Amino acid sequence: MTEVLNQLFIGGAWVDAADGATMPVDDPATGEILCHVADAGPKDARLAEEAAVQAQAEWARTAPRARSEILRRAYELIIERTDELAHLMTAEMGKPLAEARGEVAYAAEFFRWFSEEAVRIDGGCGTLPDGRNRMLLSRRPVGPCLLITPWNFPLAMSTRKIGPAIAAGCTMILKPAPQTPLSSLALAGILKEAGLPDGVLNVVTTSRAGEVCEPLLRGGRIRKLSFTGSTGVGRLLLAQCADTVVRTSMELGGNAPFIVFDDADLDVAVDGAMVAKMRNMGEACTAANRFFVHRSVAEEFGRRLAERMGALVVGPGTRDGVDVGPLIDATGRAKVAELVADAVERGARVLVGGRTPEGPGCFYPPTVLADVDPGSRLMDTEIFGPVAAILTFDDEDEVLRRANDTPWGLVGYVFTQGLDRGLRVSEGLEVGMVGLNTGLVSNPAAPFGGVKQSGLGREGGRVGIDEFLEYQYVAVPVR
């Protein structure tokens, strides 16, 4: 691994935590400590807030083209450093290098996309219906933002939030997950090199999230929170935002149904399942969680999926030929193992995998379970691991009812060769996104987000910048 940045980034400078605290960053493939990074406390949070607040007015006045060009330069630098960033990401969170390189490209594309959106922020002008006033509409940045990102896509989740904030003219404090701070610190270095003014982006790495974030949200100077993480933490943050009415956007948990009808092309469905389930070792909010397969094809689908899952190579992400890296930590692996054990105790058949391997690292094998009891814990828990749980169904109305029987509504997957049925079921799913005969929905040009307890607002696409902009209406009398 190349030399890493390990200090806080505040006001354009690299600094230690005010109290000198540090925290370890572990390699989940070995359990060994990679390095230590600064562990921010409340004083550091205040300094980052002051830097963002002080930079806001000047940054908001910056020409859209200038903001666009900074994002474009940062995009190019990320692409140039693909291998360096991929190795850094694999070291801190475990995904195979091929997937890490893919994430670097995905992350960079958010900067390219929002570099183009930065120059398309417009308003409007017109006469109001009563004819007495003209209406002038302008759009302006919402103000200083707190961005909180997860560990599973440490680079892409940062660029997906930073990109539109820069494009809109907002300053930021980024708090990355404590498991994966290195990608965010490297990104801060790239943005500084690309010409981002001091104070526009501040990065505070911390193991003391409550001490750092709550005062910021309750203090009245942070005007926007963008959070990706669990629904439970999202609820807590919403409560903290209430006192000062902080604008929020949240991408929360998922419990994605993967529906395979009797007329589906099983080759296409299994290909889609491999993507929807195994992207990032299953540690994705978009991961297929509940596989509803028509009774007439369930046995064949399960056999084919188990064959494909069983052929995957598990090991350290840096090793050639590895398909599946470690899970993020021992706690995450224990959760997956407990969910599988509960399902097996309730009668599920293990078609492949299902046993925690011995040895170092947080590895868990790709696993397929058949005949899963609907009452199993993994049916109403986000698995976040390489486990496909198969249930059967008999008709369309039944599977829609069961697919929607969850408080989450992020994404769903539908496989059928019938266009009418595909569109009908897609429209019937209570989710923000649907993959129709595909296992991949994420794209920087598409609006990403869910309904119900899966979140608020959208990221990416043409609407992604809207979360960082406010409207102002000026009434001008007609003389």
From TrEMBL:
An example Gene Ontology molecular-function term: succinate-semialdehyde dehydrogenase (NAD+) activity
One Pfam family linked to the record: Aldedh
Active site, renumbered: 251
Domain of life: Bacteria
Matching PROSITE patterns: ALDEHYDE_DEHYDR_GLU (PS00687)
Keywords: Oxidoreductase
Limits of the Aldehyde dehydrogenase domain: 14-474
GO biological process assignments: gamma-aminobutyric acid catabolic process
Record family assignment: Belongs to the aldehyde dehydrogenase family.
Protein name: Succinate-semialdehyde dehydrogenase
